[in-house]
Design brief:
The complex is a heterodimer of chains A (85) and B (581). Chain A is 52% helix and 0% strand. With 85 residues, chain A is mostly helical. In chain A, helix 1 packs across helix 4. The radius of gyration of chain A is 12 Å and the shape is globular. By secondary structure, chain B is of the alpha/beta class. Chain B has two domains: 374 residues, 3-Layer(aba) Sandwich (Peroxisomal Thiolase, Chain A, domain 1), CATH 3.40.47; 186 residues, Thiolase/Chalcone synthase (Peroxisomal Thiolase, Chain A, domain 1), CATH 3.40.47.10. Helix content of chain B is 31%, strand content 22%. Chain B has 17 helices and 22 strands. In chain B, the strands form four sheets. In chain B, strands 1-7-6-4-5-20-19-21-22-16-17-18 form a twelve-stranded mixed beta sheet, sandwiched between helices. Chain B has a six-stranded mixed beta sheet with strand order 8-15-14-9-10-12, sandwiched between helices. Chain B has a two-stranded antiparallel ribbon with strand order 2-3. In chain B, a hairpin with a 3-residue loop joins strand 14 and strand 15. In chain B, helix 5 packs across helix 10, helix 7 crosses helix 8 and helix 12 packs across helix 16. The longest helix of chain B is centred in the first third of the chain and has 17 residues. The chains are: A mainly alpha (85), B alpha/beta (581). Chains A and B meet through helix 2 of A and loops of B.
């Protein structure tokens, strides 16, 4: 799980072009979207869907489904470990 | 110059999947026929998709089509459309008193597919010149590329140029094609419905794409009017949400501002508006936002319609195509049904049309909203001519910022020298760090937006516009040569490689040049007017004139005006801070 969380942070920074953010800056439990935390937006959500497809082979058809899954790095990691084949 | 010049609609044409003339299109709309259908064409998209595409077999029999073999498809359609409109009204296209204004988002973007070198005809200025030269126009054309509000902005600019006395006639030509570029981009946004779109409906699930071309000719010469009751362009305005580059405002306040300013110019109150024709794309958030704007303007009882269910979303052409249909609604005194709509699914109780029926229509409000957070509104009226007298000589430049050759200059003095940085990316990052606190959005932007944002940061250093001006009094007018071609090429490379086909919404969203104004507006909370033009080079005199039009006839009090251009490593920015004399 720890490795997965570490990798996710690195992938997120790379895929979302978060140039000035370092993996250790991202709080595993903090919200990714909205005004707190990383402040990601709807375009980032679509990019995270692509990230899940590309790195983990997981498909989310409806962006609305992503809301709970994308809440934090922790919820993302939970989703991946529960669904990864 | 006369005190009060009245702007009349004198000629028009529409070419879409529903027909090649205004009449044919509107007859089909009146008969509630849709041009939207399912296509299977792997050259456009790997999977089946829904669209509204012009059938060229209806055009190739026209004598003019044969003569146009040297033109690209979009140019052919524009020439056919403008020829028809010009013939109907007798305006002299070659006169010094006639200007051409083009509206398009992507022009001949199909030319960059699978290409190593950049075909110069993919530049919007060359597309426009091909068409205006066909008509022997002697004036340099104006080209508007401002996402999905481009067509309405063409009317806005045309109306002001005519009222100011700059020209007597303007030929507005809008066009955009269905291309692999556009389909793949909207697909990456997951904003396309698998079925014909359902504007304002409870079960709406996205837009339908479409292609089309339209021409609208405006004139101050009343003798050219063919209609029994002349139709006038009575009010126009635009605004920016300053909220998000792809998602619309959550409140509708900014579209409401544009509508209010247009209605004030037209001297009309809510009860005078007999029909509202909105953008109505049938995406969840667009339609929601529009209903809120209608509510804020107390227009809930005015019949509201969207034409997207008939011809899809024709992007840079939509504002003009839909405006011409509005003119026809006045001529026919007919209200059209919103095809696809059955049960209201927006938060404000708006009056969406459910049947096509005769109605008394004297004043129509037409709006559009698009990526970059932009909104525009125009009023067509048989009663009012508009109370504003735009003036093209009231702009005063008070400060300048130039970025070129890794240097930033303010009023001619170098304030940041980045000669030591090896490339643009390093230079622009260092320039930003020198002037600003970390800003999360910056690293996500494309190079054009970074350039525009930084030029604005330097221009406004030590200036607090919000102290003196309200948010909606601060407007933007920018231009460049290469539009968003740098990012367009990135997106094209992604789709050219069908083996990977890693569509990226974060790339596609920057394939519109006006996004730079969106980013600047979000950062600085600028909610005033928006206009993005394409030109061969920075034409300072023309830009100051157009800025004057906004400063003199809408509530704009201060403007960021200038040039922001980026292609590969060829870049330059030249911004002016402009106030009223």
């Amino acid at each position: 799980m720890e490795d997965l969380i570490k990798n996710l942070k690195v992938q997120l920074i790379e895929e979302l072009n978060l140039e000035d953010v370092k993996p250790q800056d991202i709080d595993t439990d903090a919200p990714l979207f909205g005004d707190e935390g990383l402040g990601l937006d709807s375009i980032d959500a679509l990019e995270i869907i692509l990230l899940l497809e590309k790195h983990y082979g997981l498909h989310i058809g409806d962006p609305k489904e992503g809301k709970k899954i994308f809440y934090s790095i922790q919820t993302l990691a939970d989703f991946i470990s529960a669904n990864k084949k | 110059m006369e005190n009060h010049r009245v702007v009349y609609a004198v000629g028009d044409n529409i070419i879409t999947s529903l027909g090649t003339t205004t009449r044919e299109n509107v007859d089909n709309i009146q008969a509630e026929k849709t041009g939207i259908k399912r296509y299977e064409d792997a050259s456009l998209f790997p999977e089946p998709f829904v669209d509204s595409i012009i059938d060229d077999s209806h055009l190739i029999t026209l004598p003019l089509w044969e003569k146009l073999s040297n033109y690209h498809r979009l140019e052919k359609l524009m020439i056919l459309s403008a020829s028809d409109a010009l013939q109907r009204c007798g305006v002299d296209a070659s006169s010094k008193r006639t200007a051409f204004i083009f509206s398009t988002t992507k022009g001949n973007i199909d030319l960059i597919a699978k290409s190593e070198t950049l075909n110069p005809d993919a530049e919007l200025a060359n597309m426009a010149l091909h068409v205006s030269t066909f008509f022997k126009s002697t004036n340099k054309p104006y080209i508007i590329s401002n996402a999905c509000i481009s067509g309405v902005l063409a009317i806005l600019l045309g109306q002001r140029l005519l009222k100011s006395g700059e020209y007597d006639h303007v030929v507005l030509i809008g066009g955009d094609l269905t291309t692999e570029f556009i389909i793949s981009g909207f697909m990456s946004f997951k904003s396309v419905s698998p079925n014909p779109c359902k504007p304002y409906d409870k079960s709406r699930d996205g837009l339908s794409m479409g292609e089309g071309v339209a021409t609208l000719i405006l004139s101050v010469d009343k003798s050219l009017v063919k209609d029994a009751t002349p139709i006038m362009v009575a009010g126009c305005s635009s605004s920016n949400d300053a909220n998000h580059i792809s998602g619309p405002s959550r409140t509708g306040h900014e579209l409401h501002l544009a509508i209010t300013h247009a209605m004030e110019e037209a001297e009309l109150k809510a009860s005078d508006i007999h029909m509202i024709e909105m953008h109505g794309t049938a995406t969840v958030y667009n339609d929601e936002m529009e209903s809120k704007a209608v509510g804020l303007t107390h227009l809930e009882s005015s019949p509201l319609l969207s034409l997207k269910g008939y011809i899809g979303h024709t992007m840079g052409a939509s504002g003009l195509i839909e405006s011409v249909v509005c003119l026809e609604a006045i001529r026919r005194q007919m209200l059209f049904r919103t095809l696809g709509f059955s049960e209201l699914g927006v938060p404000v109780n708006v009056n969406v049309t459910t049947e096509t029926r005769p109605a008394q229509i004297k004043n129509i409000l037409k709006t559009a909203s698009g990526f970059g957070g932009c909104n525009a509104a125009v009023i067509f009226s048989t009663e009012k001519s508009g109370n504003k007298v735009p003036n093209d000589d009231c702009a005063k430049t008070i400060k300048e910022c130039v970025i070129a050759d890794k240097k930033v200059m303010i009023d001619g003095k170098t304030v940041f020298d980045g000669s030591d940085y090896q490339d643009y990316a390093a230079f622009i990052r260092a320039a930003f760090k020198s002037i600003s606190e970390p800003y999360m959005k910056f690293s996500k932007m494309d190079d054009l937006c970074k350039l525009g944002l930084i030029a604005t940061e330097f221009l406004l250093q030590g200036v607090n516009l919000h102290e003196k001006y309200a948010e909606d009094e601060i407007s933007m007018l920018l231009a460049n040569r290469y539009s968003s071609l740098d990012t367009d090429i990135t997106h094209q490379h992604i789709i050219d490689d069908r083996s990977t086909y890693q569509l990226s919404p974060a790339v596609f969203v920057y394939t519109l040049a006006n996004i730079v104004m969106g980013e600047v507006s979000i950062r600085n909370k600028f909610k005033g007017e928006n206009l993005f033009l394409i030109d061969e080079k920075f034409d300072r005199k023309r830009m100051e004139q157009i800025a004057s039009l906004s400063l003199s006839c809408q509530n704009t009090k201060v403007m960021i005006v200038g040039w922001v251009d980026f292609l590969k490593d060829d870049y330059s920015a030249h911004l002016l801070l402009v106030e009223k004399k």
